[in-house]
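User: Sequence in, structure out. Go.
Assistant: Echoing your sequence, followed by the structure tokens.
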Amino acid sequence: MASLKPVCALVMCMMVSAQMAYALDCKEVINDLSPCEDYLFGSADKPSSSCCSGVKSLNNAASTKALRQKACNCMKSFAESYPSKINVNNAVSLAKKCEVKLPFTIGTSTNCASIK
């Protein structure tokens, strides 16, 4: 039994470092939000269930300050790519309509560095 302790400790360290090494990338953010395009572009009155699932997934993935800032920068970049298409009111209300509390909104004027 005593010989299993170092192995268990090693496995625990690997699990912790794997979680710490997780890096959210813009591809994942865009993938989570792609079902929201109809709502964000104003062609739907409310976000779809798949859109809200993506928003919830993104919220769960952005579990640290650094990851939330990264997600914010990705969404800001997305919004800047489609400035004339994004319905600002829909972007601002997206999280609330999906019953998710995000510390930021999707928009080109969001200050991602201020997110905690």
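User: And one key feature?
Assistant: The CA atoms of residues 81 and 108 lie 9 Å apart.
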